[in-house]
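Following up on my earlier message about zinc ion. Here are the inputs again, as you asked, copied directly from the submission form:
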Amino acid sequence: MSRPKRFLPLSLLFAVLAFSGGILWHYASAPVGAQGGPSSSDEFEIIEHQIQAGETLAHIAQRFAVPVERLVSSNEPLLDDLEELEPGKTLRLVKNGVLHRVKSGQTLTDIAKTYGVSVAEIVDANGLHDRKYIYPEEELLIPNPSQTPAWRRFELAGGKKALFSWPLRGVLTSGFGPRRHPVTGRRDFHEGIDLEVPEGTEVYAARAGRVLFAGYRGGYGLSVVLQHDQGYRTVYAHLSEVFVYRGQFIEGGQRLALSGRTGNSTGPHLHFEIWRYGKALNPLALLPPL
Ligand SMILES: [Zn+2]
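Thanks, got it. Here's what our run produced:
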């Protein structure tokens, strides 16, 4: 169950206005009396809009003046294909933020990092001052996110919902399987793929999960390992900078790191692996088409 009402602090001013093609909830975050917090009127409008036949995301984004990245982010569970919307489904649009559905194990700190906002901003926007916990499936309003991973994930998966999205767009220079190692010259089994990109290119999580490892590890150099559900793991190697830490919950499409050439690397590229239950899989068989 998720209704916009969930965001309402008790003291909130609340008005429902008829709106052409949808209903407009118009409310302002309440003054935080006890702590003397913001008494300004940060306004969050949540618009419900039923998709009409022939409508595109671009139309809807323009009509309601909501950036398409935020539109996608707020409605991520509903969307399967950004090119083909399903008429009759109801989208929810927030002008000054996005909606987020809490996942099991996710903390406010995780969520704040996912969207590039502070915990305090989420607490204020949702009236969480007196709360100790957030709950799975609960919906939170994220005010003015600087990152929208759900959008990035779609973008890196060709606009469609996918098991994995690409960690970045690069030139495939080495595939999965037996090869002669480019550094040692010995016969070797390449347990992932290499994507050539300039040093410092942003690297994104290929799927939601938790950080199992972030640091230096032998030939992998600076690297990140994510643990996903269904026994999957992904590995991102030869990085130059890492933005996540062990235990952190990561959304698919969330920025993890910058690419580099640390460890055994002949040049700047991302080495990317997908494992399942201890077995390396060919990422090209699981990723969307190039
Ligand atoms: Zn490699």
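One observation from looking it over: Helices lie at 57-64, 68-74, 108-115, 119-126, 149-155, 283-286. Hope that helps, and feel free to reply on this thread.
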